[in-house]
Specification:
It comes from Draconibacterium aestuarii. This protein is mainly β and 312 residues long. The protein has a single domain, classed as Tachylectin-2, Chain A, CATH 2.115.10.20. Helix content is 12%, strand content 39%. The chain is built from two helices and 19 strands. The protein has a four-stranded antiparallel β-sheet. Strand 2 and strand 3 form a beta hairpin. It starts with a helix and ends with a helix.
């Protein structure tokens, strides 16, 4: 009887300890020319980011074997799922791997998604979103199929539209479908859930006059997307990722012409305030996604990072 009580008490202590463990923000990123693989940065406040270095996973798949635009989502079972751009051009799919601690990763897989049309030029910036209402993952990305859509000043091989697939287990995937055709070349989309039946899509208008970031609104994570806004960034910006912080949303993005990493703040996705002067990121940081993890995983990453430095 006493043993049972003791076991119960230990279980409660462990449960409370796990529940109270502090969460931290993690930023998946890469360094040009993207052949070294996954880099990571972390933050406690969402503004100031510390470099954890890399590579935490070196690219092994794809025609060019690069790892650009790493998108990471933590599933309900605690598993981290990551997808990435594996080649600038030529690949008809993207890379995928998973991890429970961000240190040890599964075998890398190449997920072919555009092989139904071999004229496809590229598969860029796959972005993961976990749909907690349907318990499935949505993966969206940009591809160009020449002469398929109307275009403006863009070349046929640079006239992107967004596509998607869904999966529950990263083993079986739904057929690829068109995700977004706004009537112009579009890349780098990010799905944001505010509440049920209230979603925002952050997107890059990739047309030659624009090349800036806008938002659209929908009732489901698959759209349809309406009321595309005016740009809230300057031209030559891309790779947005979104962080929820109390009652505000922070949108980070890569200002690639200026070679800076900037951010805006919004509470309604209609009015945006430039907070670039308030944020700090590691030198060379390139776009990926922000996600949450717990402090024990962070501490393990810090320890591994320090061990690496000691060996150099």
């Amino acid at each position: 009887m006493k043993l049972r009580i003791l076991i119960s008490i230990i279980g409660i202590i462990l449960f409370v300890s796990c529940k109270q463990e502090k969460e931290v923000y993690m930023f998946s990123t890469f360094r040009e020319p993207a052949d070294e693989g996954l880099y990571l940065a972390y933050s406690y406040d969402g503004y100031n980011w510390e470099d954890l270095g890399g590579s935490w996973l070196k690219p092994e798949i794809g025609e060019q074997k690069v790892m650009r635009d790493p998108s990471v989502v933590k599933g309900p079972d605690g598993t981290f799922h990551m997808v990435w751009t594996s080649s600038w051009r030529g690949d008809l799919g993207f890379g995928y791997a998973s991890s429970t601690d961000l240190v040890k990763w599964s075998e890398q897989q190449f997920i072919s998604v555009m092989d139904f049309d071999t004229s496809t030029v590229n598969v860029w910036a796959p972005e993961l979103f976990y749909d907690d209402e349907l318990d499935e993952y949505i993966i969206i990305w940009a591809s160009t199929i020449p002469f398929k859509f109307e275009k403006g000043m863009e070349e046929e091989r640079n006239n992107h539209r967004m596509y998607y697939t869904t999966t529950k287990d990263f083993t079986t995937f739904s057929d690829t479908k068109l995700y977004l055709d706004p009537g112009f070349s579009v890349i780098d989309c990010v799905i944001v859930k505010r509440k049920s039946s209230d979603y925002v899509l952050v997107l890059k208008d990739n047309t030659r006059p624009e090349r800036n970031i806008k938002v659209a609104f929908g009732k489901t994570p698959l759209g349809t997307w309406e009321n595309i806004s005016e740009p809230f960034t300057d031209n030559f910006t891309e790779g947005p990722t979104v962080l929820k912080l109390d009652d505000k949303w922070l949108i980070y993005f890569d200002a690639y012409r200026k070679k800076t990493y900037d951010a805006v703040e919004t509470s309604d996705f209609k009015t945006f305030t430039d907070i670039s002067g308030k944020v700090q990121l590691p030198e060379g940081h390139k776009h990926g996604t922000i996600f949450k993890t717990n402090e024990s995983i962070l501490n393990q990453l810090i320890q591994k990072s320090e061990e690496r430095k000691a060996k150099q």
